[in-house]
Amino acid sequence: MADGREGLIGRERKRRQPDPGMAQRTTDEIDQKAIEAGRLLFAAECEFVAGATSPEILPPIGLPEVAFAGRSNVGKSSLINALTGRKTLARTSNTPGRTQQINFFRLGGRLMLVDMPGYGYAKASRKEVKEWQGLATLYLKGRPSLRRALLLIDARQGLKPIDERVMSQLDESAQSYQVVLTKADKLKPAALAELRDQVAARAARHPAAHPELVATSAVTGEGISTLRALLAALASPTPLR
Ligand SMILES: Nc1nc2c(ncn2[C@@H]2O[C@H](COP(=O)(O)OP(=O)(O)OP(=O)(O)O)[C@@H](O)[C@H]2O)c(=O)[nH]1
Ligand SMILES: [Mg+2]
Fold it and tell me: Locate the EngB-type G domain: which residues (predicted)?
């Protein structure tokens, strides 16, 4: 299936079976419902609300938040654009380190999408790198409204030592996170399947990592409806002011 729903279906089926309220529905109907909930959420209005360069100007706690984190150039901003179906909502660039602040996008009054500055970018001045990463770390560690961090990994590069360090940091702060492969269009299906297994096995050693791994492409749309469905489950059920 082109949008990578297979993984979701397998695990959701296991997880949802004991729920007595679901007894009358088939598992496929439930999966379709999740996909539809994701479609609906991401069809809603999405607007830029704030760009924070220091902890004092983070927007007030409100909506549940999902942060897009990962190395510079991994495709964080592109994934936000692909999910929301808006090409230029988050600024993307060929130049690593483009997103230099934490950008907040309010989706349908139900979820805040948070575009993080990338890590592992060597060219910026040391002071700048320290400042962005200080802010990012502070945000990831101490934000009560952060429901999940998505840790993006470039499918062409796989998990790097710096990603593992970030994962360990998230484990230590008990911040739930989920690995998302990006640029899946760059790999042949067999190589992608192998990478998925490899990364999933490594992620399984990290206590705060969510077991589900999603492979995405902002170019082909692979995995986008699956990720929308997963994020819809984290959103506020009703719009908040
Ligand atoms: N082939 C392919 N290219 C992608 C994909 N997603 C992003 N890119 C490209 O990767 C480059 C970086 O994308 P961005 O979305 O700006 O990456 P980022 O992680 O936000 O980068 P920083 O903000 O600098 O940390 C751009 O040239 C994108 O066009 C994808 O799914 N497939
Ligand atoms: Mg960016």
Answer: 62-237
Rounded Cα distance, 83 and 76, in Å: 11
DSSP 55-70: GGGSPPS-S-EEEEEE
What CATH number does residue 117 fall under? 3.40.50.300
67 CB-contact burial (10 Å; exposed 0-12 / middle 13-18 / buried 19+):
buried
In a domain, 27, yes or no: no
Least confident window among 21-25, 50-54, 113-117, 134-138: 21-25
Closest ligand 1 atom to residue 98 Cα is 24
Structural domain boundaries enclosing 109: 46-232
Evaluate whether residue 202 is within a structural domain.
Answer: yes
> From the CA of 17, how far away is ligand 1's center (Å)?
38
Q: Match 């948070």 to its residue by tokens.
A: 114
Q: Is the CB of 217 within 6 Å of ligand 1?
A: yes
What is the residue-wise DSSP string for 57-103? GSPPS-S-EEEEEEBTTSSHHHHHHHHHT-TTSS---SSTT---SEE
Strand (E) or helix (H) holding 177: strand 177-182
Span 25-49, average pLDDT: 85
The phi, psi pair for 215, rounded to 5°, reads: -100, 130
The answer to whether residue 1 sits within a structural domain is no
CA distances from 28 to 7, 24, 34 (A): 13, 12, 10
User: Quick check: ipTM above 0.85?
Assistant: yes
Nearest by Cα to 119 from 91, 143, 154: 154
CA distance 185 to 193: 12
